[in-house]
Amino acid sequence: MTTARILDFIKTRRPEGPCLVVDLEVVRDNYHAFEHALPNSSIYYAVKANPAPEILSLLASLGSNFDCASVAEIQMALDAGATADRISYGNTIKKERDISRAFELGVGLFAVDSHEEVEKIARAAPGSRVFCRVLTDGEGAEWPLSRKFGCVPQMAVDVLVYAHQLGLESHGVSFHVGSQMLNLDAWDAALSDAKRVFSSLAKQGIHLKMVNMGGGFPTKYLRDIPSAEAYGQAIDAALRTHFGNQIPQTIIEPGRGMVGNAGVIKAEVVLVSRKSDNDNHRWVYLDIGKFGGLAETMDEAIRYPIRTERDQDEMQPCVLAGPTCDSADVLYEKNMYPLPVSLTIGDEVLIEGTGAYTTTYSAVAFNGFEPLKAYVI
Hints:
This protein has about 375 residues and is α/β, with parallel strands linked by helices. The protein is about 30% helix and about 25% strand.
């Protein structure tokens, strides 16, 4: 959403070029909403969503833990004031030397999804706690996750037994229901799988302690979304259904849900044109596209709310594209985007809900365009 603080910043500062403006007050409110919705779960902010130092410092001061995908992100969390015991190395695909460096920095909690990854951790971070990621189907997610991460529940059992045999602490299981998950029941099946893994290992004398319930918490784009409280109630009910009175420690990893609605991208119309004299549809080109930070428009998966000063005028669908010399840099074509007929070259547009997965997706210098600038207020 575009807050008054963001609008005032854009109006008074007049930043040049496309840029992201993030309102920290919204991030603070989101953190407290998650804390209230799931009071018994530890919050591990997914740093990859937006690693701006100001965001990490705020969250560290509020008591957040951090889910990191690389040594660089671990260092960012430490620099923001987090201690190593508040960091999870949540990527299941890690170089052994990176595991070793994380271990040197004091990190002792690692994600795995294969026997081979367990072997690396046993060598590079002996005695550490590991949790195994279980595959989910992702049905109901607007940005579903592929089969790149995780393994089937039975393999998770085998992986955690192997970890125990190699001297690691088999600590728990994790799953991710898919990003921008709008189905409140998505956690139910995943927690059922988690419970089966817990029970299978208990029979072998290995008692897991933790379920990492991942992210998936949405931000509002064009469609309404359930509240954090609604997710909390659904997840709490599923935990009680499957674990009864023996509910384990739980972790959640909000990323998009923590920062998505805190950011707005200011962009500019570069060109409005048609492909033939009798073409019914305009092409509207912005100074930002897939390579400038809007990568999640891939397959038109995420549809951002776009506001202009001409929104009271007649609206017609158009093809919306970015500025680069790459034919893939088209944001919305199959499902065209309604924009004012009066929209013209030089007009400013505000792309809402862009606080997550924009700056970090921005190319360094594709076509010579600068990476997306960001301001945190």
